[in-house]
Amino acid sequence: MKRMRIPIALVVALMVAGGPYFVPAAPAATVGPVTDPVGVVKIAKGASLTIAYWMVVAGPDASLGIDTRRGAEIAIADKGGKLLGHPIKLIGEDSGCNAEGGVTAATKLAANKAIVAAIGSNCSSEAVPGAPILWKAGIVTVSPSNTAPKLTAPDRGPTYDGYLRTAHNDKVQGRVAAEFAYKVLKLKKAATVHDGSPYAEGLQGVFTETFKKLGGTITAQEAISPTDTDMRPMLTKIAVGKPDMIYYPIFISAGGHITRQAKEVSGLANVKLMGADGMFSPDFMKAAGDAAVGMYHSSPDLSPEALGPAYKVFQEKHQKKYGEKPLAPFHAHAYDAAMMIFAAIEKVAKKDAAGNTYIGRKALRDALYATKNFKGLTGTLTCDKYGDCADPKIAVYQTLSADTAKWDPGKNPKKIYP
Amino acid sequence: MERAPVSRYRRPWIAAVQKGLLCGGVAVFLALVGMVETFAGRQIIVGVFSLGLALPVLTAVVAGYQGSQRQAGGVRGAPVVRGALAGAAVGAVVSALVVLGNLVNMRSMFVSASPAMFAALSFGRGTSGIPLVLLGAAAVGAVGAAASFLSAGVRRPLVTALAWTLGVGLFQELLQILLHAEGARSAVRELLFIEDGLSIRGATIVFALSWGSSTVWARRGGAVRQWHGRLPAPRQRVLRLGSLGGAVALLLLVPLAAGPFISQVLVLVGLFALLGLGLNVVVGFAGLLDLGYVAFFAIGAYTLGLLTSVGEYGIVGLSFWAAVPVAVAVSLVAGVLLGVPVLGIRGDYLAIATLGFGEIIRILVLSDFLRPWLGGSQGVLGIPKPMIGGFEFRGPEQLFYLTLVSCALVIFVAMRLRDSRLGRAWMAVREDEDVAEAMGINLVNVKLMAFAMGAAFGGLSGAIFAVMVGSVFPHSFQLLISINVLSLIIVGGMGSMPGVIVGSLFLVGLPELLREFAEYRFLIYGAALVLMMQLRPEGLWPAEALKRELHASEEVGAAAGPEDLAASDRRGGG
Amino acid sequence: MQSSLMRRLSVVDLYLWAFRIVVLVVVVWGMIGTIMARRYPGEVWIDFVVYGLSQGSIYALIALGYTMVYGILRMINFAHGEVFMSGAYTAYFVAAAFGRSGYLDRNPVVSLLVVLAVAMITSTAIAVLLERVAYRPLRGSPRLVPLIAAIGASFFLQYAFRGFFGSGFQAYPETQVLKGTWAIAGISILRTQAVVLVAAVLMMLGLYAFVMRTKTGTAMRAVSEDREAAALMGIDVDRAIVIAFAVGASMAGAAGFLYALVFKQVHFFMGFIPGIKAFTAAVLGGIGNIPGAMLGGLFLGIFESAGPILFLDGLGIVAPYQLKDVIAFTMLVMVLIFRPSGIMGERLVVKKA
């Protein structure tokens, strides 16, 4: 230890002697051919163009972040790894699926002036404190998996001006699910289950509200932990209320347990089951087995006439590159987020005679907000003025076969609404 | 005894190969767990050496060093040969993995067994790269062996220089952020780095500089120390105070010099240090293993959030300064309330009972049951930043000072506590509850005070945490936080306050700076805890008392000099 | 300062009494509320008990490992949950291969036995390795040292498995013969649950016989009574300890297999929570006590399945199953405070390490 002390002191002294490093609030700048009120990124000829992710890639929720990071990586590979002649560099931070992780990750990315745009975050609790930090540094971020309504609510304030998402707002999906249950299936009594995640809790809240407004009754609002395995007692309690359906917009693992075990609990054999996009994946079929046959899912419209083949190709690439199937449901949203960013960069970037590229930060943000009819894996994306870009077309699917080999959204699970 | 000459000829070779095979197993483990591939992305010297390659190379060096140890024969060359043998054994194991990966698709089982990983292991040549792997590993092993008989004067600067080059390469991202400005700093950056790693030129410069300065220090360092030793005592104290003042001044300048990111990391380090200092009172001083410590962190954060929030769940809208004492007091009371039931529970049972409390608090905070008051999974939002006059603690640069002051305050309080009558009672309880009780120590009071003080420090940390984030979510209070805090006080040195800071820097600061490690954070924590318990249970910066105790046989009471007696006299009076 | 501390002394006893009374009142009030409401017919309670027994028997099998190691070493093997996970996870690969080739349905008994054997062997191997590498060098150190090493080992194993096999889950293949229900004495019980219950009980009886009747078992009991004396009597202490680890781990491996049979999903984090629950079960039954671990497991299982309704629903608490773990941990703390010897009633001896 002692031997190291003097060199360390030297380094620190040099750092300090370099003078104060106040990072000024990004001023209006003119660099090369571009003037931008927020700032300009200059990328020298041949240097790489940096895109950052902030996702949860470590810890118990890592599958969510690894899944979305892979979506972004495949998008980069599809671009040939290059944009405007610059190699694309993807750097990133683990955001831990909690608020403090979001703050740290965003602060670190904000300090890196080379970052053009960011993809993230995964959990809404990360984005709440993190997105303003990034935008203060002029970095616009597109989230592939935040669904909390408040992030794109009209009263979110100007600090969220640099925030968009390709994940759809819970408000839309919860409402569609309730309308489908009440109007199409003509069910009057429903029970809901959530797993304590803001996503599921939010969705079931919207569902409950809409369902009651339509005239239905909620017989029980239960909750579990995502790590629970034995759902039968909880389901037995639900069965006592004799609901017509159970709505559980949770994730694959716990959702699989509920689906399997609901069939085994007396009194629930004929109850309709409905989940959301959090478990709309072949992995869920694996988890739930044949019990999934007949159940409903709400999810963005992935009907094959519009997007099916593209997604299939994506899946094959994923299998080849990572040796496994996608881990969570938001990889395609991440792919779209990346592609949307690339398209916006291509739109606003300017080159000078020497081959350097200049990107105005405000211009990039505006271009992203102006995204219209963008063909992505998850649908046709159009951003509104609060940054909601997801295709608002939510469809309801019914599973016909739990065989993962027959997974083909649109045919199986079959699209039945609207 | 009769067989000794035989074994002298035979056993060293076999032992070397055995060690090599063992290290080879470690290399294969590192590869299959995914580290080699993940770390391959981190260039240390661009185009030459990546962190991914560093892992197998290091295992080979260790194998070579280990293989050449001890049973040194008469011949000078033999250790090198043995080292090479051990290195080659590592190479052989790695090659076996490459061959196996070529024959069967390991991917269906091991997700990390990707083509990229095999390429990284075989210099991108598949099975035809094997001779190269074997040769390279043998050479590296020989180098490792050579290190064992170089004279210290040569070896130390060499190792130091290598470590510095590796370190600068590792922390390049951080350094580049620091140097990302116009002028002289930018010139330094361009001199050393290209893209995301050291350039060959940069590596040479770093190596030469650190080697040079280290050599000079090795020659002249003794003289400096002697000069310092010859100074009269008051001058020495002035020097020590001066350097302490310098260090404090440097700390105060950090946010200005290093920008928001480093400040943010240091705020986190500070918050964990606060937690560590609190848990240290409970575990390190009083010996009560608490695995549910996160509960008090949560209680502090939620109390502050509810008292100050301007959002939906705020109840009074107090200012931060008015709310902090309340948050600390609430945590303190919670510490007592949760402490009372577990007073009679000892050792391992206590660990599990407190773990239960931690989980209970987290589940309650998350539950729909308490949602109308605590916000459930959607959390408490809209916590304003603290203000003094017109100065707002807006970002990490400002919060850094708040954390620093809190740490200083808590260290001061903890130090006074440790040296008080209560502190000695804690130590007595830690050593042996029954004896302590027999000596007239009131176990109830002493234990409750430990829980209460620990909880209060944890609550303070939680309160600052809440304003740092500006919102409080139940997901921030996982059991992993408790494990994290426990790990850091153990790595730092149980019962030692500088140790807590060191542990916090290592376990919280380092992973924030090296993001590749973040993915393997808990794997490394786990290994670190196991190894630490075997090799250095007293921690990196051990508390004096504990060190004495664990190495008692080596010193045989020599440490209990007059100074100690005087000290205990003095404390006895207070 | 001093006087206020003295005053608190009597308050402590009061507080403990108040704690006892509050818990009792809450429990009784909740129970009366639930029963008076008459929302839940009798069959529902039978279902709760059946579910609880099948979950509880898995806890019980894991709890045996804690109890055996604690009995002999006075150490909580915090990594035992990961031993459970490692067996179930590794056996998945065998089960999946059988499932793909169709052998699982052609010859279910043989293939399930093979899968069970793989799970037990892997768990045992991991536990023995763990003992050798992580715990044995620490024997004789202060008490906290091995516990902390065990916490480290737990995390190391979890994340090593994550690194090896990925962070997603794997789904065991369906076994056709075990689908559906059997009607036993008028109660329809799921086949998987019946198999789990029977298998668990057989395993536990086997273990009990092993510990009580065989020479090795006797040696182990001797070591757990008094290690020094046993060593003096010529018992190989190291061997007895390794066997305790191995036997406990093989039970955990079997539990992993049964878990996979019922719940189908395995992933790297699956061992942590059952591990803690099983420890709770071991404490409930009186740690170090083999029949106690069995009873504790079953008891905990039933509490978890019926408890939220029985105690909380009557109080008008919403979403009671979210608070399932609160009940389990409160019970643990209550047992530790008021009856540290567990429900089996053997006196808990706190030995000095």
How would you sum up this structure, described in words?
The complex is a heterotrimer of chains A (418), B (574) and C (353). Chain A has 418 residues and is an alpha/beta fold. Chain A folds into 2 domains: 37-167 and 330-387, 3-Layer(aba) Sandwich (Rossmann fold); 171-304 and 395-417, Rossmann fold (3-Layer(aba) Sandwich), CATH 3.40.50. Chain A contains 12 helices and 20 strands. In chain A, helix 8 (252-262) links the parallel strand 12 and strand 13 (272-275). Chain B has 2 domains: 10-217, no CATH class; 257-478, no CATH class. Chain B has 26 helices and 6 strands. Chain B has helices at 4-32, 35-40, 51-68, 78-103, 115-121, 130-149, 152-170, 172-178, 184-192, 200-230, 233-285, 294-308, 320-339, 347-366, 371-374, 396-418, 421-431, 433-438, 443-469, 479-492, 497-513, 515-519, 521-535, 544-550, 552-555, 562-573, and strands at residues 43-45, 49-50, 193-194, 197-198, 387-388, 391-392. Helix content of chain C is 75%, strand content 3%. Chain C has helices at 2-37, 42-73, 80-101, 103-106, 108-135, 144-165, 191-213, 215-225, 227-232, 237-263, 272-285, 290-312, 324-338, and strands at 170-171, 181-184, 187-190, 265-266. In chain C, the strands form 2 sheets. A two-stranded antiparallel sheet of chain C has the order 1-4. In chain C, strands 2-3 form a two-stranded antiparallel sheet. In chain C, a hairpin with a 2-residue loop joins strand 2 (181-184) and strand 3. Chain C is globular and about 60 Å long. The relative contact order of chain C is 0.18. Classes of the chains: A alpha/beta (418), B mainly alpha (574), C mainly alpha (353). Chains B and C meet through helix 14, helix 19, helix 20 and helix 23 of B and helix 1, helix 6, helix 11 and helix 13 of C.
